[in-house]
């Protein structure tokens, strides 16, 4: 009988994968800590949920450009070197953010600018690291490796935002950014110890020809294209993160600590679903797995919106008082959304890494990273703008229903995706 617990065989199969996993986990935890701190910092300077959503939106175009170009770099040069350069840029921008804050020279525009630099560098780094993993472990361990990536996401998003909320509330912004500077050093260890990893197959130099070659492949890869579309739908209509700072002030109470708790709840769901992913990674029908998990994600966001709607009818709160029952209910709904999104991610990552040739994997991973990180930024604009013109509970309540309906329609229209078999991967 197969175990329900997470499959740890990738650690035993590859010491290089293990080091990269540890470095990515620690650096990612610091990156999430900084992301939430910037959101809180912007809200403290402006008092505007729309301004908070613009932290995500401002980096969208640079992130898209960096993701596409970074994927071309990863398909043309030693992926270890490309990853190290991206990590260096991220480290330098975070260090500058800490210095500006300690010297009290930070402004809203500095926060926007450095968040853009971080977003762009992270796009390159994530695309490169994802393209590296299939070179470090055998194909039959890609799904367990994706589940271990869920553990990484769970730890970094659960610990980082919670720590950010506590540090901002007790010590201020400078220490939070400084801790990220220290944690970023772990990424250099994970990348520096890798062997040289030049792409296999025909190498196309970065430029228009490389970009056209990648898009030509994607135009034929209907399964890959459909998973991109489904994830964009989920993240556009079901990512209420831009609302968290305001929720901690005007509806749920608790201020920065509630903001950190809500963000950490999503990660807790991600972590637990990976911890008990032993049977999930053995399910071979990945298209159906993606459909069902994204629809479950939409249902969880509906419940979150309903919890916020209930809060409208309860006595008002502020940063110093908390509606604990509502906070717990909201966290449970978000934990369920994190679990569902992680299961979808396991299947989507495995589909990407198993069905795409190594010579083009960097470019497709670049597009994949744009989808994964760009969708939430568009979602931040959707949630922040709609909450401004309607009510803070309305975007998640509406968005969850939109996700459920659109996913059902699109998968029904694409039977090839629904019947995708992991034992016979085809892009």
Automatic annotation (TrEMBL):
Q: Which residues form the Major facilitator superfamily (MFS) profile domain?
A: 1-423
Q: Name one GO molecular function term.
A: transmembrane transporter activity
Compartments, as annotated in UniProt: Cell inner membrane
UniProt keyword annotations, A-Z: Cell membrane, Membrane, Transmembrane, Transmembrane helix, Transport
| A GO cellular component entry from the record | plasma membrane
| Membrane-spanning parts | 20-44, 50-69, 81-102, 108-127, 147-169, 175-197, 228-247, 253-276, 296-314, 326-343, 364-385, 391-411
Annotated InterPro entries? MFS_dom, MFS_trans_sf, TM_effector
Q: Which Pfam families match?
A: MFS_3
User: How is the protein disposed in the membrane?
Assistant: Multi-pass membrane protein
The name on file for this protein is: MFS family permease
Q: Which organism is it from?
A: Microbacterium ginsengiterrae
């Amino acid at each position: 009988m197969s175990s329900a617990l997470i499959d740890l065989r990738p650690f035993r199969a590859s010491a290089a994968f293990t080091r990269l996993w540890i470095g990515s986990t620690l650096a990612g935890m610091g990156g999430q800590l900084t992301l939430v701190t910037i959101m809180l910092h912007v809200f403290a300077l402006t008092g505007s949920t729309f301004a908070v959503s613009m932290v995500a939106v401002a980096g969208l175009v640079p992130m898209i450009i960096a993701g596409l170009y970074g994927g071309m770099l990863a398909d043309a040069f030693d992926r270890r070197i490309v990853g190290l350069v991206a990590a260096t840029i991220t480290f330098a921008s975070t260090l500058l953010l800490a210095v500006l804050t300690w010297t009290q020279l930070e402004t809203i525009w500095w926060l926007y600018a450095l968040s853009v630099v971080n977003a762009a560098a992270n796009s390159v780094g994530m695309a490169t690291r994802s393209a590296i993993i299939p070179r470090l472990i055998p194909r039959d361990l890609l799904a367990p490796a994706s589940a271990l990536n869920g553990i990484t996401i769970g730890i970094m998003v659960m610990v980082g935002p919670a720590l950010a909320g506590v540090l901002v509330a007790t010590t201020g912004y400078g220490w939070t950014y400084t801790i990220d500077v220290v944690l970023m050093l772990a990424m250099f260890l994970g990348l520096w110890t890798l062997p040289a990893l030049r792409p296999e197959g025909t190498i196309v130099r970065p430029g228009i020809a490389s970009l056209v070659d990648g898009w030509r492949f994607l135009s034929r890869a209907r399964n890959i294209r459909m998973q991109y579309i489904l994830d964009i739908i989920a993240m556009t209509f079901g990512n209420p993160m831009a609302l968290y700072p305001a929720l901690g002030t005007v509806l749920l109470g608790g201020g920065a600590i509630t903001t950190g708790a809500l963000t950490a709840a999503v990660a807790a769901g991600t972590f637990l679903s990976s911890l008990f992913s032993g049977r999930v990674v053995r399910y071979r029908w990945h298209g159906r797995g993606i459909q069902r998990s994204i629809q479950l994600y939409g249902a969880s966001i509906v419940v979150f919106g309903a919890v916020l709607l209930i809060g409208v009818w309860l006595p008002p709160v502020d940063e110093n008082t908390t509606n604990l029952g509502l906070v717990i209910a909201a966290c449970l709904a978000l934990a369920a959304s994190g679990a569902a999104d992680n299961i979808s991610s396991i299947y989507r990552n495995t589909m990407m890494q198993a069905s795409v040739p190594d010579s083009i994997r960097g470019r497709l991973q670049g597009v994949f990273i744009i989808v994964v990180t760009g969708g939430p930024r568009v979602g931040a604009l959707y949630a922040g703008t709609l909450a401004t013109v309607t009510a803070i509970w309305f975007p998640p309540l509406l968005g969850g229903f939109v996700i459920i309906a659109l996913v059902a329609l699109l998968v029904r229209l694409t039977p090839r995706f629904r019947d995708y078999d992991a034992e016979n991967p085809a892009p």
